[in-house]
Here is the input.
Amino acid sequence: MRSMPISSRTALFVVLVISLLAIAGCQDTLSARQAEAKIAEPASAAPAEAEAANPEHHEALSVEDSRPELEMPSPIPLDPSQGAEVGTIFEAFLSPHQEGGEEEDTPSAIPDVFKSTAPSLDRNERASRGHGVLSFSKDLSRAFVHVAIENVDPADIAMFHIHCGRPGQLGPILIDFSLAGNLQHYWEDSVLTLEITNADIEAVTAHGSGLIGALTAGCPITAALPMDKVKTIAGMETIAREGELYFNLHTHGQMYFGDIRGQIHQVEK
Ligand SMILES: [Cu+2]
Here is the structure.
């Protein structure tokens, strides 16, 4: 086989090199065009609709997509620990006169547990009185009860409750202090001081059973829904602000209406 002359071989090599460079150049241009086309390609409607129909597929907003954060400082300095401090404060002065009726007016149909077992004194003959303070932590996780009484023998005390009801109205029990411990022990020095939580509210509704329980245990959060009862200290504080709570101290001689009652009202700070 005859070999190609050197000049011809050189020429072929040059042609090959030029061809290869040209192909490579074309490929570069093609890649660049494809990339440009990708950037310029408008989002088609179909995938956007699919994403809207399936929010799980939405990606979280990137930092760049977030609106700018406030540069203005909070008008109240932020301090989560302040939630444990006392917020709203309420007060009541307990007297025999905030309830109508005498013990002999006790309805005969009521359970024996609400009937007197000792001689009763008419309201105008009783010198018993009390002063109660109810306060709430700002985060509404706790309430604090401080009550002092006078002219009541602690040994005569049978029940002590916070009820809900308008002035002069007998209402169901929200807090039953006897479920929190020994009343005689608490009242030994004629002063009761206790912290209460959601559990103390739940204990009353859990304790009340049957029709009597449904009517006497737990307070409605709104009058329109009588069976939707307050379950939290937060709900209790709301009905306290609405003027719906009262203390009632029951003695063995004054069981049904109670010896002294005090409607709870907010203290203006
Ligand atoms: Cu009561």
In short: Residues 159, 161, 163, 173, 248, 250, 258 surround copper (II) ion (CB under 6 Å). Residues 6-40 form the longest helix (35 residues).
